[in-house]
Description:
Layout (H helix, E strand, L loop, with lengths): L2 H19 L5 H22 L11 H25 L4 H22 L1
Helix pairs in contact: 1-3, 2-3
Amino acid sequence: MELSEIQRLVDANAECYSKKHGIPLSVDLLVLKLMEETGEFAEALTVSRNLCRAEKRVDAVTSQENLAAEIADVAVTVLHLASMLKIDLEAALEKKALAKGRAYLAERNAA
């Protein structure tokens, strides 16, 4: 699936959430949500590394599921934030990291 299609579906999900809960979406709200979701991911990582109180510990499968869910929340928030800011995330990723990654892999494979 193309990133633009993922972004379109994320935006639709955000619109549904906004209507269902009566919470208007804004850049300010999304930045706050990004901080919230990042914190939840950090907590899930803390638990997965057993760097938490014993009563918070979970089995490895649950831990991995929690990590996946929380990092997905971070990604979803970033995708919707990019849409609201009218940023072509695919182009930005290409410029920031993908081209450099391709160059590195080509160089590594040539060696």
